[in-house]
Amino acid sequence: MPIDIPALTSLGWSAFYQQQLTSEEYETTYPCRVMAVHRGQLILSMGTEEFTLSFTGKMLQEQGDHQATIGDWLLVSRTTGAFLRLLDRKSLIKRKSAGTDNSQQLVAANIDTLFIVTSCNDDFNLSRLERYLAFAYGANVDPVIVLTKQDMCDNPMAYVTQARTLGPLIMAEAVNALDPSTLAALHVWCKPGQTIALLGSSGVGKSTLANGLGATYQKTGDIRENDAKGRHTTTHRSLLRLTNGAVLLDSPGMRGLGLADCEEGVSAVFKDIADLAQACRFKDCNHDQEPGCAVNAALMDQSLSARRLKSYNKLMAEQQYNAATIAERRKKAKAFGKLSKKSIAAKKTGQDF
After folding, report:
1. DSSP assignment of 81-138
2. What is the pairing mode between strands 142-148 and 73-77?
3. Sign of CA pseudo-dihedral 47, 52, 58, 59
4. Closest CA to 118 of 141, 152, 146
5. Do residues 130 and 257 touch, judged by C-beta distance below 8 A?
6. Distance of CA 283 to the CA centre of its chain
7. How far is 6 from 12, CA to CA, in rounded Å?
């Protein structure tokens, strides 16, 4: 059976991926997209059918960013169904794993647009939005801030206005996920072949929004009235087909979203502060009490808020710390790999090691 290009295109296949195939691979492999990741298994789709692929052999040897994650495109053998290789990605969203080992968790690959979902209530938090924006920019994904539950708020545009203060090019839309007419503003990012991801806290209405956009039914739940928090109604990440031809990644709410390899993303979110820093008298200015500090001058004339500077300092410090510890882990892993190879070689020659 030849490769069904129209079926693959409905999942987001494009020339970017097709040009990576050799003429031999075009005849002997099937491109598949990872639709879901369960423990030890991938759910793959060729556009016309889905099947399960277990983590065995070559897939188990892959480490770090080379591991397959949801949204990835990979090649499997037409004859054996075995995994052959992972195709290059357009984008990769990752975060620092929970805990203290400073490892990284791959969240999703090949996402075109990230819907950063918050709601018009106590969940709205500018500093959290800045963190999510840093993830989007760092992953080379276009962000759109989606403010849900506008029907439960007296002045939803006040939230939209605040969100748009985070950057001159920030896109922000207020919607009622239960009212199709308000979701029309989001359709420009939900065209056939596009992949959209939802990212936000629990209880902001991600599953309701997914349903409103035409995804397969997603379970929804209530939020607590005292703090506007919610329980997870999506329990695992999965790609869902929308009725208009786009593909949507629905994921559980993330209570912890640690930055990893995201310095460019942080700098993009806080371009205003980065530009101010260029005007400081000293190149190594800490923006504290140094004379000639343009950042402090902006604080004094209130063109820069103390909240925004605090958010920038926090995210940059977190990014730098995690980057250093991740680099140290990679260094140790590389050294261990070399040591293992020497040990194996010594055993083959009968020498002591």
Report:
1. --EEEEPPPS-EEEEEPSSSS--EEEEEES-SEEEEEEESSTT--HHHHHHHHHHHHH
2. unpaired
3. positive
4. 146
5. no
6. 32
7. 10
Structure token digits, residue 217? 């039914």
User: Please, what is the Cα angle at 114 between 109 and 120, to 5 degrees?
Assistant: 145
Along the 353 residues of the chain, how does pLDDT read in single tens digits? 788 999 999 999 999 999 999 999 999 999 999 999 887 889 999 998 899 998 776 665 566 788 899 999 999 999 998 999 999 999 998 877 665 555 678 889 999 999 999 999 988 999 999 999 998 999 999 999 999 999 999 999 999 999 999 999 999 999 999 999 999 999 999 999 999 999 888 888 888 999 999 986 555 545 444 444 444 444 567 898 998 889 998 766 555 567 766 788 999 999 999 999 999 999 888 888 889 999 999 999 999 999 999 999 999 888 888 777 655 655 655 555 555 555 555 555 665 54
Tokens 């031809």 found at: 245
Phi, psi torsion values for 11, nearest 5 degrees: -100, 0
Q: What are phi and psi of 3, to 5 degrees?
A: -65, 130
Helix axes 271-278 and 306-349, enclosed angle (nearest 10): 90
Q: How far is CA 69 from the centre of its chain?
A: 11
Neighbouring CB atoms inside 10 A of 35's CB total: 20
From CA 244, how far away is CA 259, in angstroms rounded? 33
Residue 69 CA to residue 219 CA, distance in Å, equals 23
The CA distance from 102 to 239, in Å, is: 27
Q: Which secondary-structure segment (H or E) carries 308?
A: helix 306-349
Counted residue by residue, the chain has a size of: 353
- Tokens 């938090």, located at residue: 125
Q: Which pair of structure tokens corresponds to residue 108?
A: 């999703």
Domains in the chain, start-ordered, CATH in brackets?
5-86 (2.40.50), 92-250 (3.40.50.300), 263-337 (1.10.40.50)
Count of alpha carbons within 13 angstroms of residue 146, beta-carbon side: 31
d(CA 75, CA 212): 33
Distance CA 163, CA 10 (A): 32
